[in-house]
Amino acid sequence: MSREGPRRVLRLAYSAALHRKGRDAMAFIYYVTQIQFDFGAIQLLRQECQRVGITKPLIVTDPGVKAAGVLQKALDALQGLPHAVYDQTPSNPTEAAVRAASEIYQAQRCDGLIAVGGGSAIDCAKGVAIAATHEGPLTHYATIEGVPPASPTRWHP
Asked: Which of the 8 DSSP states describes residue 52?
């Protein structure tokens, strides 16, 4: 499996509830990737893709976000940038959902990820970032219920 994967995972949190009159600064969270919170932040989507070198993103979202029209706002903000969509993220993403999205990512030759929605879309996109570039089950790459992942290295005396 190729080690070439998403250059960057963009996570866009969009909420009208964050809009406040007179607000003059966007809130950012930096932790490996960047999350932007602000009214209208979705309009920066194409610019952010260009900034990090994404030319064909896979957009990961869920049926509720799609039904609410937020996915369409993200697609409109891409302004014609080639993309693929996975819109079946369950409320608690499963490995099956991650694998289904990863298949789309690889088949469509995507080079980045955009999560549109809440934590479920973000978690699914993070799983795709791993599954698209690493073999084996996702449990090999995560701490599950406080137990660190098993080391693939065997120690010999």
From this structure: H
> Which of 105, 111, 63, 70 shows the shortest CA–CA distance to 87?
63
Say what the pLDDT of residue 39 is.
Answer: 85
Query: What is this structure's pTM?
Result: 0.73
Confidence grade of residue 24 (pLDDT, cut at 50, 70, 90): low
d(CA 151, CA 106): 27
- CA dihedral sign, ordered 1, 95, 93, 61: positive
- Average model confidence (pLDDT) for the chain? 80
The 10 Å Cβ neighbour count of residue 75 is: 16
Neighbours of 57 (CB within 10 A): 30
Phi/psi-derived region of residue 21, left when phi > 0, alpha when psi is between -120 and 50, beta in every other case: beta
pLDDT, one tens digit per residue, over 60-93 is: 999 999 999 999 999 999 999 999 999 999 999 9
Both tokens of residue 6?
């998403």
Which phi and psi angles does 29 have, rounded to 5°?
-120, 120
What was the pLDDT predicted at 44?
Answer: 92
- On whether the CB atoms of residues 78 and 45 are closer than 8 A, the answer is yes
